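Supplementary notes for students who missed Thursday's class. We covered one full example, reproduced here. Read the sequence, then the structure, then the short commentary at the end.
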Amino acid sequence: MTTMQNNKSMNMLSNYLLRMDQNLGIDRRQNSLLTANENENNENDTDEVDTSDSDFGDPAKISVNINSETIDSLIKNPIIQDLNSFDFENSKRVYEGLQSRYASKNIFFSKLRNGKIDTEIGKQYLEEKNYWMKILHRVLSTIKFLPSRGMIFRGTTKKFGRNDNGNYLGLLELIAQFNPFLNNHLKKYGNPGRGNDSYLSSSICDEFIGVLSKHVRDFIGSEARSAKYFSISVDSTPDVSHLDQLTFILRYVICDDSPIERFITFISNTGHKAVDMETAVLKN
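Structure (token representation):
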């Protein structure tokens, strides 16, 4: 066998080992790459491997003295013969693809442990939600307090800081003096103008009154239906504008024998005859 064939075989083997190391990430610093077969009859033909630190990791730089018998066995080895047909580039792409999928999986589970993928947006949403719920709780408590004392809501103006802004806005101002949260809100949104949300306007107040009145009527109706007997009282009463109205009152006795009288609503008076009042009550 010629020297050219030997060099070609060794280069082929070195390139194969180098590519396999790069694809598989193997560190061969602690292992010898080749172990030569000893020739008992000729000590001068004994295989020698240079294992200096500077040459480890690069099989192409390893100095190997190998006899012709070993070279023949290497060339006839099926693995060496199949090197030319081995698809190194494809194996490299598969390896890189696995690395990419592993990295993507780590990112996914990391975000899953930390919460939603849009964690920051969700966090901001919850903060805004909690802020406005605290405001609405204070507004609702104010609206529930005023009718329980028979006090009117509105004044001649709808602005904070005025003496004629009514009991509703005035009571919010009083609470804000001892509540820093509401005080900061009034400074920021107290008089924002039309089109700006503050949840302190008369529109929000009217919506709360409507919702509360519905719950009250439903409760009265449920309580009256559970009573054994009930009666209806309709009376004509003029208001401050001297407009005649009908007051609709419900009377009944609950299970503990306590008499209950509930005011339901005002009804526009269509006449003073009994049939007119009956029609107005049934219509409403």
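Commentary. Residues 26-57 have pLDDT under 50 and may be disordered. The chain has three domains: 3-104, 120-206, 227-283. If anything here is unclear, bring it to office hours.
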